Amino acid sequence: MSFATIAALLVALLVGAPVAAHLLRRRKAEEQPFPPAKLVPPTKPMARRRSMLEDRSLFAVRALSVLLLALLGATPFVRCARLGLARKDGASVALAIVIDDSLSMRAPLEGGAGAPGKRTKFERALASARELATGLRSGDAVAVVLGGAPARVALASTTNMAAVTGALDGIEPSDRATDLEGALSLARELLRSVPHTDRRVVLLSDLADGAPNALPLGGGSDTTLWAPLPELVASGNDCAVTRADLRAGKVRARVVCSPDARASGEGAAVVSASAGRAVELRAGGKVLASAPLGAAVRAEEVALDVPEGAPEELTVGLTPGDTILEDDEAPVVPAGGALPIAVVVDVASTHVATGGPPPIEQALAAMHLDAEVRPLPAVPDHADELAAFAGLIVDDVPGFTPEGRRSLAAWVERGGVLLLTFGPRAATAPLGAGFDPLMPGVVRWGPSPSPGADATSAVFFGPSAEGLGKLSPDGRASFDPAAATNADVLARWSDGAPLLLRRSLGRGAVFALSLPLTVDESDFVLRPAFLALLDRFVGTARARGGARQIDVGDAFTFDGFKDVAIERLPVRTGEARRPIPVVEQDGRRRAVAPLQGRYEVRLDGERAVRVATVPEREIDLRPRRVIDAARAEELGGVVPSIDASPYVALGLLGLVVLELFLRAVGQKREGSASTSA
């Protein structure tokens, strides 16, 4: 309730004025001579008659007038609006309601900085979906699709209105990115199976999908798109802390802001989302360090020193708040949030003509797999050192010592993923060195008996497998038959020998490639299959439980674990832990993170903390366009609000007339009484 409304309602207190006026009303008594009164001695009055309200009908009219005056000032509009559907000749209709449950929909419905308790755009969209469901008739079909990335089907097309209500009641806001194109595609697919001729996709979104310059939504389809709520369209600007990593006593926070927006009014100055704001390092509500944010930031990394004795659980936040409060704070992740991948390469023998790091490191950096590449001079011998990595790549393996093999095997069994590439050094392993149990048997190196690989056997590489048929290495490694036992042959040479093997060991996996990753020995690193191998390797390391930090909407995956449970830890005081369902899909256990923050994972009794962060592409409040036909009035719309002010004013005027009439009647009666006396 606004201050103006409260002030107007206080006018109702003036209803005491008519009461006081009537109680204080005094009339001078008309004296009449009575001669016998002189014979009676005067006495002092012992009691006085209390003041009474006179002319109660006139008093009631005046009091009611004051109350109506307060009502007129406080509630000039009585809103009875509801989203309604316009039908073609009264026929039944099939709807696919797309509800955007992304982070940007947490912005308040009215402009300005976000504030707890304000109605958000998501709440307005969900309420509008319920209004549409209430107005449906028998024979209408409804489907519900969620527009947060990735787009999901909340309810397949149905005529059961109770199921529609239940589906809408189960929808909650999230911190996902926006996937409107995917949501509209799903909605159209759901409508294809219904027999209705009138099929419409209802889009309830702020249209901030991170692609403001893309083609307008709704074009190129025979299904009608209806965007009925222009008040949801995104506006303003926002900044978010997308991640915060702790390294060497410093917290490096990445802050992303929406593109600069212009202030209201043509020709107004540019307003930056970062102007006048600061980044704070917090612990339990206490500020430990702070740094000012740049005046016009699009994406910036801010470094904050961690004071000695600081607690383990730290957060980085922005002050003051902005349009969306939920993305203004992020937890600090120790040792970096990206997937840690160790690479052991002999730099002296592995080089490229253009210079720079080895091909493995260059490829991992160029692919942007959210993997932190850490070059190592040698393979760590101790399990504690290996525990810091989710994946390990060793190029042209010369063999491992018995202690090194035991440490590597234990690390793989706990969920590590190992990629071994074999070259000329495999045949010259020192005495006592070997590969068992990682790769059973003896590995040999020699000339390639046949050129090229069998592309039909290399489904693992996807479309990149076609280029493997033209491989022309100087030599290749050959594995013992024991190596292929209980292993998956992911690709074969043209003569049937294994090119790439994958062996599961405990919760982890070992990949073995019969080629080294050097340009001098083979042209494998120059082909797309090399990038596909690294992509699948990193994906496997992430799936085996190595990813400590993901984007909201992505899934934590857990391969090889029997007992898996995950809960979102409270962000604010008073919040409870929120269990996250773990589902099995395609033989893999997955748990989707719907909100940013910390998640506690229990894997076969061991506890670990994972983090979900805000997707950077969601911090862009520039709306995408929709086709003009999506705003057509013949599709339906919001019933205009009813302005009750004229009716209240007319009633007030009637009361004034009634008061004048009552006063005239009262004066006439008094005149008649005095005349008769």
From TrEMBL:
Protein name according to UniProt: BatA and WFA domain-containing protein
Membrane-spanning parts: 6-24, 58-78
Keyword match Transmembrane helix: yes
Matches recorded under Pfam families: BatA, VWA_2
Ranges for domain VWFA: 92-312
Lineage: Bacteria, Pseudomonadati, Myxococcota, Polyangia, Polyangiales
Organism: Polyangium sorediatum
Keyword Translocase listed: no
Keyword terms of this UniProt record: Membrane, Transmembrane, Transmembrane helix
